[in-house]
UniProtKB/TrEMBL annotation:
Domain F-box: 7-47
Protein's UniProt name: F-box and associated interaction domains-containing protein
InterPro entries in alphabetical order: F-box-assoc_dom_typ3, F-box-assoc_interact_dom, F-box-like_dom_sf, F-box_dom, SCF_F-box_component
Record-linked CDD domains: F-box_AtFBW1-like (cd22157)
NCBIfam families the record matches: F_box_assoc_1
Stored SMART domains: FBOX (SM00256)
Protein source organism: Striga asiatica
């Protein structure tokens, strides 16, 4: 074989599959035969399955300073990658800057919907400017191989009340995007599905009430519900946090799931509320995924004492049954810290206010810290020079890994897309 006379192709593939993506990209320039192997769909899939434990966390933080509707511009954002090792304690060296190459107008901003198998889904966010009309495409981007795909323009409006999630169907090797649209108080939500394999949208399908466990303690006060994206993909399912649209109970009360392969919705109740609800306020929970298991992190505020704690739950499944229940892992008591993400080593990453008394000024900087619930200790992850430039309490996280996804696809011009970019065609293996 050209370039490797002493190695069989099978052995060469085994060796290459254990290398990081950046090394493979350099090696693909060694010979034509190596490039053919590395860019093949079969090898890309094999490399992905071999490196499942190599993961990172993509963090997005807002800068301090003026932004929002009153100033006619969005707050500036910074992005970081955080290593996520299973058998090592978190360390400041794990945090590195991450370049985001896409430019957005001042009146809008981008939203990282999710990241699956190294492919990041990005949509336009109108959270700061709800009256603006969205006209920018949804993007699928693999930063490691520097390839991206702009989706065809949808046949429906991406209004501010639309909610987007990103998922993957392993059986068909297809990446899908689902948009849920709430059209009115008396109209059932509808959903639309995009498939990367077909490069097309389907919809709008009426979202029928899912047959699942009933939601606890919810009175019948109308059908309108608010769907909140979580970016959490676990067990082959997307997840939305859902709350009823009425004033007395503003917190989220249930999860909606969408099975990406079967394309069906189901409803799952959230963990139970604290036993003593007097003088307690439950905030909006965070949803995280660790080792393909869904976790819910529930903030609770004791109003009279101004004391806050976070409860971490993991979703379990009974053997031989589809009934789901929640197992309480631990509780973090700290009013000065906001949850960011969970690490595979059992530590929590939190955004800690270094001067809690100044929080009322709404202009404090946070400090990313790792918290180990086993010993109750915090340790710094973020240099002071970085933390002083961003706002406290506005850090979002998405799981991420470096892969070859999209390297096996040929990019061509797509006249159906607002931006003059591309659609995709899958390269065929010779075998």
């Amino acid at each position: 074989m050209e370039g490797s006379p002493y190695l069989s192709e099978d052995l060469l593939v085994e060796i290459l599959a254990r290398l990081p993506v950046q090394s493979l990209l350099r090696l693909s320039t060694v010979s034509k035969s190596w490039k053919t192997i590395i860019a093949s769909p079969k090898f890309c899939s094999f490399h992905l399955s071999t490196n499942r434990n190599s993961s990172k966390i993509l963090l997005t933080a807002q800068d301090r300073g003026q932004g929002g509707v009153a100033f006619g511009k969005r707050p500036e954002e910074r992005h970081f990658l955080l290593n996520n090792y299973e058998n090592l304690p978190a360390d400041p060296s794990w945090l590195t800057p991450f370049d985001f190459p896409f430019e957005y107008p001042d009146w809008t901003s981008h939203h990282i919907v999710g990241s699956i198998n190294g492919l990041i889904c990005i949509s336009q966010s109108l959270s700061y400017f709800p009256d603006a009309q969205p006209n920018l495409p949804i993007i699928l981007w693999n930063p490691t191989v520097e390839r991206h795909v702009c989706l065809p323009d949808p046949t429906f409006s991406l209004a501010y009340n639309a909610s987007i999630e990103f998922g993957y169907a392993a059986a068909t090797d297809d990446y899908k995007i689902v948009v849920v649209r709430q059209l009115g108080e008396t109209i059932a939500p509808e959903f639309h599905v995009y498939s990367l394999n077909s490069n097309a949208w389907r919809g709008g399908f009426e979202m029928c009430p899912p047959a699942a466990a009933p939601v606890r303690n919810i009175e019948e006060r109308g059908d309108r519900r608010i769907f909140g994206s979580t970016g959490a993909f676990a067990g082959g399912k997307m997840h939305w946090l859902v709350s009823n649209d009425y004033e007395m109970e503003p917190y989220c009360d249930t999860l909606y799931t969408f099975d990406v392969a079967e394309e069906v919705f189901a409803e799952v109740g959230l963990p139970p509320p604290p036993e003593e609800m007097t003088q307690l306020i439950r905030g909006t929970p965070r949803v995280a995924v660790v080792r393909d298991l869904l976790h819910v992190v529930q903030p609770t505020l004791i109003t009279l004492q101004m004391y806050m704690y976070w409860t971490i739950w993991v979703k379990m499944e009974d053997a031989g049954s589809c009934d789901m229940y929640w197992k309480k892992l631990y509780r973090v008591d700290d009013v000065t810290a906001v949850f960011v993400c969970l690490l595979k080593n059992g530590e929590l990453v939190m955004d800690k206010d270094p001067n809690f008394s100044r929080t009322v000024l709404h202009d404090v900087h946070g400090a990313l810290v790792a918290y180990d619930p086993r010993d109750g200790k915090f340790k710094d992850l973020e240099p002071l020079s970085l933390s002083q430039q961003r706002a406290f309490g506005n850090v979002e996280s998405r799981n991420h890994q470096e892969t070859l996804v999209l390297l096996d696809r040929t990019l061509i011009d797509d006249p159906q897309t607002t931006w003059n970019t591309c659609q995709v065609q899958i390269e065929k293996d010779d075998n």
